[in-house]
Task: inverse folding
């Protein structure tokens, strides 16, 4: 093994340990994931909901017919949302053993695996849908992680990550720190997604689409502080924000939703079993 490979493996091990520490003391985060508060639910679920709505416009089908792999899934936030949305066959994966263990305890109806997102130990086109949210930018090689998602996906890939536009360049962080470990915040745009996809699958038929969204966690925290935690009023405030500033700034939003659909004109035949618990 060469020096660069040793350095890379050491960085991955340190990052895994950093996330182990984070998730082992993540009571507030877990409370947010499992909340019933209406405003928090809206904030927590909005980007994946938007992505899934668009996916099913292109591929009319039932969630129960899809097998799903969540990459960089942490303690299961995205996997739990898909389970609630009617997907039966959902596998949550993460590089952190602590995250996988917590996910198993939170949601035993899911499947769980420890996987390196840059080297997914699954066959080509073995999962209908592969999804990531705010995970690729933690990788040393984010595009390699995306390439692995495209390879494993039989039908579709959803990527929800920071966008490289003006808002994030002006207000976003260049580097993030997690328990002393630093990663570069890799940002996406349509051209990057399309080129990475087509350079991998070549002349095969594919639909590549990107959406923008203004993810307003700071709006929520400000309203929560001003309104004293009144979830109904916070929700109304978020809706007003979406109808005003969100409508104007949405096309320039800080969040990137990338959708890749392989063979978009072929009828979808799912691989998931509808009789799963």
Result:
């Amino acid at each position: 093994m060469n020096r660069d490979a040793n350095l890379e493996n050491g960085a991955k091990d340190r990052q895994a340990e950093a996330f182990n520490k984070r998730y082992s003391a993540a009571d507030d985060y877990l409370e947010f994931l499992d909340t019933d508060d209406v405003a928090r639910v809206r904030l927590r679920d909005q980007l994946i909901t938007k992505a899934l709505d668009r996916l099913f416009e292109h591929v009319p089908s039932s969630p129960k017919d899809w097998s799903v792999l969540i990459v960089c899934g942490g303690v299961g936030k995205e996997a739990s949302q898909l389970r609630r949305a009617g997907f039966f066959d959902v596998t949550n994966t993460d590089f952190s053993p602590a995250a996988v263990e917590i996910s198993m305890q939170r949601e035993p109806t899911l499947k769980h695996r420890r996987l390196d997102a840059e080297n997914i130990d699954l066959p080509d086109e073995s999962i209908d849908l592969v999804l990531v949210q705010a995970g690729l930018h933690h990788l040393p090689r984010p595009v390699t992680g995306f390439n692995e998602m495209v390879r494993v996906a039989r039908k579709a890939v959803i990527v929800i990550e920071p966008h490289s536009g003006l808002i994030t360049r002006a207000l976003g962080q260049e580097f993030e720190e997690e328990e002393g470990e630093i990663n570069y915040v890799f940002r996406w745009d349509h051209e990057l997604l399309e080129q990475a996809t087509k350079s991998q699958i070549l002349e095969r038929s594919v639909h590549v689409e990107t959406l923008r969204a203004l993810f307003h966690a700071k709006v929520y925290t400000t309203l929560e502080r001003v309104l004293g935690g009144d979830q109904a009023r916070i929700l109304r405030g978020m809706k007003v924000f979406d109808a005003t500033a969100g409508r104007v700034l949405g096309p320039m939003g800080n969040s990137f939703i990338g959708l890749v659909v392989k063979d978009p004109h072929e009828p979808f035949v799912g691989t998931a079993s509808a009789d799963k618990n």
